[in-house]
Amino acid sequence: MLVRVAVSDPLPLFRRGVVAVLSEAGFATETPDDLLAWALDGERRIVLLTLHSSSDWALLSALGAARTGLVVVATLEAPSTALYVRAVLAGAAATMRRDATPEDIREVFAAAASGRSLLPTEVVRELSGTPGARTPADPAPPPEREIDWLRQLAGGDSVRAVADRAGYSERMMFRLLRDLYTRLGTANRTEALIHAQGKGWL
After folding, report:
1. CA pseudo-torsion sign 32, 48, 18, 136
2. DSSP labels for 56-122?
3. Residues 90-118: what's their mean pLDDT?
4. Per-residue b/e over 181-196, b at no fewer than 16 CB within 10 Å?
5. 16-20, 86-90, 126-130, 144-148: which has the minimum mean pLDDT?
6. Nearest Cα residue to 90 out of 122, 66, 69, 111
């Protein structure tokens, strides 16, 4: 049976590379604009979704709830056990590092196409250690400099002010903060600050 694969990633070069690797491996691979509509249309399908922003995490949840038989492979830029667990709990059947080799990509998709899943051992241990739990593992505290960024934001400073103090451009600081929010298992600044407050970091 033909298995169709959709690749969704914000970087065109990465998308083209994964499409080339999977096409060579015999998968019918494409990059649809409307991933959710594509996932609901027709035969057996696998989606590779890079979790880069809060909207990607929302899309993962929507795909996970969309239909049975759909397999989502989540790609993570800065993977940690907590993020892997979060991805699986949100609906991913398998996970993969964004810097995976072509061999790794082929292996993950071959497993997905045959109804198996490849996950890091520590993720399986974490999932098995929390039976019935539907929340990700508690992430480790971020470095002190990142906690300091959260303190500044909680104190009312703008991202530009935080960036100036840290020596980054405003754009880079937005990226660094987005990565921090993701590692904390939160979707945005407000959730991150509530989480940090609850941990006593602020």
Report:
1. positive
2. HHHHHHHHHHH-TT-EEEEEESS--HHHHHHHHHHT-SEEEETT--HHHHHHHHHHHHTT-----HH
3. 89
4. bbbbbbeebeebbebb
5. 126-130
6. 66
- For 11-52, how does the pLDDT look when each residue is reduced to its tens digit (9 = 90+)? 999 999 999 999 999 998 999 988 888 887 766 789 999 998
Q: Kindly give, in sequence order, each residue whose CB lies less than 8 Å from that of residue 45, ignoring residues fewer than 6 positions away.
A: 3, 4, 5, 6, 38, 39, 69, 70, 71
Give the pairing type, strands 4-8 and 45-51.
parallel
Residue 142's pLDDT band, with cuts at 50, 70 and 90, is confident
In Å, how far are 25, 75, 94, 118, 128 from 108, measured between CA atoms?
A: 12, 11, 7, 6, 21
Here the tokens at position 137 are 């593992």
Domains (range + CATH), the chain: 4-128 (3.40.50.2300), 144-199 (1.10.10.10)
